[in-house]
Amino acid sequence: MPRFSANLSMLFAELPFPERFGAAARVGFRAVEFLFPYEYGAEDLRDVLGHASLALDLFNLPAGDWSAGERGMAVLPERRAEFRQGVDTAVRYATELGTRKLNCLVGLRDGSLPWDDQYECAVENLRWAAQQVAGSGITLHIEQLNPIETPGFFVDGLGVAERMLADVGSPHLRLQFDVYHVQRTQGNVLATLRRLIDRVGHVQIADSPERGEPGSGELAYGRILSELDQLGYGGRVGLEYRPTVPTDESFRWVTEYGWRIDV
């Protein structure tokens, strides 16, 4: 049976962010994830999580000016120092909050630079970041984003992600496998999951093409999540979707498949 975490950057969006923790706990979630914690103090977040009896499963490294369209700094040579400062900040938050997964959005393609220069910058930064989390119990992840929704994102296909994992060559760097992004980019989800499962550290889901809850689009999540169980994936599955109905109602698919939220 899959174990789920609620992505509070998308779920319960009808509530102010601090109230989403309690809402997730009332539904039955035991873990949550979200994009970034840095707007809040780590102590305040620890109190909110503790009050709701929730674990924080994953969040992202600082990714620059999100509202201005930035999606990370690892591929930007002129921002190496800022990237590394962001890793230090993320590790501090993760340590204080008991989080063991950090995701790195590597950033956008800069057409004024050779592709290879940006790639080598990312590998160098990721290798350094992986060394920083070694021995801490924290695992760093990289993620592909689909080029339809995020045009210009550097890791715009799994081939780039696989090459980065190989070239960094660290057991502390894993793949965040977002089924929605894989489907929008290349499809063939089941075979791809089988091929890459040994490199997968975290899984996120949404239906395609509108990024709603499972059952609102074209993906057969009963098969996908059952396959994930059979492959031996032991982590949580992040529900990173935009509900097409009120959030509480959007979890009906869980029980329809015979699963539970509170595991």
Description:
By secondary structure, this protein is of the alpha/beta class. The protein has one domain: Alpha-Beta Barrel (TIM Barrel), CATH 3.20.20. Helix content is 38%, strand content 15%. An eight-stranded parallel barrel has the order 1-2-3-4-5-6-7-8, surrounded by five helices. β5 (139-143), α5 and β6 form a beta-alpha-beta unit. α3 runs parallel beside α4. The chain is globular.
Number of helices, where a helix is a run of at least 4 consecutive DSSP H or I residues: 9
Order of helices and strands: EHEHEHEHEHEHHEHEH
CATH architectural category: Alpha-Beta Barrel
CATH topology term: TIM Barrel
Output the CATH class name.
Alpha Beta
- Within CATH, the superfamily carries the name Divalent-metal-dependent TIM barrel enzymes
Straight-line distance between termini: 9 Å
